Amino acid sequence: MKKKLIFICLFLIIPIKVFALIEVDITRGNLNPLPLAVSPLSIDETSKKSFEKILDKENIGSEISIIVENNLRTSGLFNPLSKDAFLQAPDIANLKPRFEDWNLINAQALITGKVTYADEKLRVEFRLWDVLAGKEMMALAFTTVPNNWRRVGHIISDKIYERLTGEKGYFDTRIIYVAEEGPKTQRKKKLAIMDQDGANNKFLTLGNELVLTPRFNPTSQMVTYLSYFKNLPRVYLLDIETGTQEVVGDFPGMTFAPRFSPDGKKIIMSFAKDGKSDIYTMDLENRIVERITNHPSIDTSPSYSPNGKFIAFNSDRSGYQQIYIMKNDGSDVKRISFGNGIYGTPVWSPRGDLIAFTKLHNGKFYIGVMRTDGTGERLLTENYYQEAPSWSPNGRVLIFYRETKTNAKGEGFSAKLWSIDLTGYNERLVTTPTDASDPSWSSLLSN
Amino acid sequence: MILSKIFKNTLLLLAACLVLSACATKKEVSTTTDIQGQMQSDVYTGTDTVEYLADGVPDRVFFATNESILTTASRETLRAQAAWLRKNSSINIVLEGHADERGTREYNLALGERRANSAKDYLMTYGISSDRISVLSYGKERPVDGGSSPLAWSKNRRSVTVKAN
User: Fold this and answer.
1) At CB < 8 A and 24+ separation, what contacts does A207-210 make?
2) What is the sign, positive or negative, of the torsion defined by CA atoms of A47, A51, A57, A62?
3) Which segments of chain A belong to CATH 2.120.10.30?
4) Which of A185, A212, A272 is closest, CB to CB, to B110?
């Protein structure tokens, strides 16, 4: 709660004025990314020197514009043009762009801005221009502590993305994942967190015990995960700001596959005992435990619908792994996956209309999506091994992990994070310092 | 008549070709992965990775893909373990359940638990108290063979009996 308040205070956002024009076609993925120009943010000499001293960055204006450019490019919806072709200087462009010049290099939109240092704060203003119409579409200013400069770049990207696509952005977010090292038979695993663009990577555990499947609380900077601390696999809770850890699933057996409810107040997880796994919830405030399923099969990988009324889960009650949905009290269980192959890891989209899943068919693994009644199955990507999709907070992009095949000696193994657009286009490797798996995407930090 | 005889012969020849080619492909698979004699309908039957709790007491049993049913060989191994545990009544054990890499992480954790429990249930029917047995599933996290072949996977689908004290 405290942290949330601080975030809001840090960013003083002043809208200057707003018009309405360009539209981006977001239904087709990256077939025709919109060409646009991100002019480096202009900066006066005094401010430049101050930031150089504080942040050790030669030109913070162009650093921030590079963040914006990279974000827009990786979305697959935009094509930021090479700065070499820009004719107008950043400071003049921000005052009044010469639209003919930008039109000449085929930019349909232009982003300009200015950075200043005042009262020990970083002030950034930016403008989004419709080049063809010759009009300003949006202008905003932010004031924050200088150390927040990367987040300013992400927030600007989100504002531009939202203004041009009509959907919320997903750039001011973080990814929590499992960092992996060592031979396949003795893998060392640590929790790690990074900004969505791979910056600010940080390890949260030391690797002394096996950790798996971290998931963000959608309403705070809390994480739930599975730890083998003292060789007892249990569900834990971690506050990533304070580093405090506590066990929440300390039942006489294994607790695993944890996820938060959409309001962040409950953890839903599997509890395995005597060869059967069932789904339980725990209220984090009063610690009341509720049993949701009761079946001799394996019931696992539960995921709430965004309104909290339904739960999607994985069960082998039909003989093999399939996807089921039920009401949040465990009633009305319905199987929804009926295609060829076996299905796992259902994850409800934040928009509520789709369920992402992993599928194994004929020795290949697929990441796909289906409607919540099981119709409209679409496979987005096929590979030797991949699983565990996690949605971007706007429900537009999926991040998952992929493992490579090894040779007879067990060599050649790697585990990496990948992202793909909901349309099946724009598949990208997400670079991490070590091998990586089990990614989970946070909500927007500045919401 | 002659025509039908020729037709019959051609058919026979065709069938023979099919059988031969089927054999050929099967053989190719088994030689490249060195499965011969080490797997029986998907269950590992070799001794490469097996360790011994005592003379004649193997420490592990193997499973078919997605299964937790004990084979005849597995039951024999567990009976030997039960006899050894009855003789060494101060020893407690951990049954470590494992899965191969061809399944989702969370399901495999549950599957490892189910496999270890089917070994536990069998030991209990041979007189070993549940107080002496704990179960620990590693899912697919601790393969014994890091290879990506049906044979490697069969070695990894296992429940291993480990001394706890």
Assistant:
1) A207/A181, A210/B141
2) negative
3) 174-441
4) A272
According to CATH, the topology of domain B39-163 is: 60s Ribosomal Protein L30; Chain: A; (3.30.1330)
pLDDT for B30: 41
pLDDT digits over A233-282, tens only? 999 999 998 989 999 988 889 999 999 999 999 999 999 999 999 999 99
User: Do the beta carbons of residue A56 and residue A78 sit within 8 Å?
Assistant: no
How high is the pLDDT of residue A97? 95
From residue B69, how far is each of A322, A350, B117, B143 by CA, in Å? Answer: 20, 39, 10, 20
* B137–chain A Cβ distance below 8 A for any pair: yes
Any CB–CB contact under 8 A between B145 and chain A? yes
Cβ under 8 Å to B: A residues 377-406: 384-385, 387-388, 403, 405-406
Interface contact A270, partner B, CB < 8 A: yes
pLDDT tens, position by position, A91-121: 999 989 999 999 999 999 999 999 999 999 9
The domain made up of A2-165 has a fold known as Rossmann fold (3.40.50)
Place B89 in a pLDDT band, splitting at 50, 70 and 90. Answer: very high
In which band, very low, low, confident or very high, does the pLDDT at B37 lie, cut at 50, 70 and 90? Answer: confident
A105 has a chain B CB within 8 A of its CB: no
Residue A300 has its nearest CB partner, among B66, B106, B117, at B106
Q: Is the ipTM of this complex over 0.90?
A: yes
Distance CA A61, CA A83 (A): 14
DSSP single-letter state for residue B135: E
Q: Which one of B107, B108, B159 would you mutate to disrupt binding with A, by most A Cβ within 10 Å of its Cβ?
A: B107
Domain A174-441 belongs to what architecture?
6 Propeller (2.120)
pLDDT, tens digit (0-9, with 9 covering 90-100), for A31-76: 689 999 999 999 999 999 999 999 999 999 999 999 999 999 999 9
The residue ranges of every structural domain in chain B are 1-33, 39-163
| Shortest CA gap A360–chain B (Å) | 8
